Amino acid sequence: MANKPILHYFDGRGRMESIRWLLAAAGVEFEEQIFETKEQLDKLRATVLPFQQVPLVEIDGMKLVQCRAILHYIAEKHNLLGKDMKERAMIIMYSEGAMDLMELLMMYPFLKGEEQKQKFTEMDNKAKNRYFPAYEKVLKGHGQNFLVGNRMSLADVQLIEAILTVEENIPDALSGFPSLQAFKTRMSNVPTIKKFLAPGSKRKPPPDAKSIESIIKIFRG
Ligand code: GSN
């Protein structure tokens, strides 16, 4: 039995959450080494972080950083990166769109006042007028259950994560997008995903004031 992947990160979502999602969707159990202080992060930086940044995932004898490299490796290993080069390109293209949307959501809780208001407007506008219409069009266009190749891929996992995260902030975000609503229901019922969405899984909660403060302390010292 191969060793479980070990995820090194702080106790929150950030850029590791998509990796947790993907492993969970692939049915892979993983372990987490959570760091809670700047000293612990600095120790990792001095030893195993080539670019001084996390996420870091130990997997199959490698110590991988850069979330896209990690995601693509896991996706390819578990048959979630398409059947050929063209599918792979499409999957990465759609997955990058979802990541761009996630990037807006990731920073939002860390902002304050006017900056946060502006970010909310950008998030709301881009979710409803840029990203969701694009995915709605793809799903409605080919009428299949998943974005590419009629089977679940990295792109679908990134998209369901983005949808649920947008909805935490904007509950009616999917109201104009029937194909995305159906996609959300389908994806939420994939057994591995259903398990990840249930209480007690390794899914991290949205950041609250306390976790935001501790994350800022770790990175800003
Ligand atoms: O995709 C990646 O993994 C990298 N291109 C970016 C990783 C990154 O920015 N990591 C942050 C913490 S996670 N959230 O944003 C990080 O380690 N920042 C500290 C630093 O010195 O850059």
Please provide a written account of the structure.
There is one protein chain. With 221 residues, the protein is an alpha+beta fold. It has two domains: 97 residues, Glutaredoxin, CATH 3.40.30; 104 residues, Glutathione S-transferase Yfyf (Class Pi), Chain A, domain 2 (Up-down Bundle), CATH 1.20.1050. Helices cover 58% and strands 7% of the residues. Strands 2-1-3-4 form a four-stranded mixed sheet, with helices on one face. Helix 1 packs parallel to helix 3. The longest helix is centred in the middle third of the chain and has 30 residues. The radius of gyration is 17 Å and the shape is globular. The relative contact order is 0.16. The mean pLDDT is 97. The structure holds ligand GSN. Ligand GSN binds next to helix 3.
Q: Overall pLDDT, averaged?
A: 97
Number of helices: 9
Shape: globular
The CATH architecture of the largest domain is Up-down Bundle
> Which compounds are bound in this model?
ligand GSN
Strand order of the largest sheet: 2-1-3-4
Low-confidence stretches: none
Question: What is the helix content?
Answer: 55-70%
Number-wise, the strands total: 4
Percent strand equals: 5-15%
End-to-end Cα distance, whole Å, is 40 Å
> How many domains comprise the coordinates?
2
The value of Rg in angstroms is 17 Å
Class inferred from helices and paired strands: alpha+beta
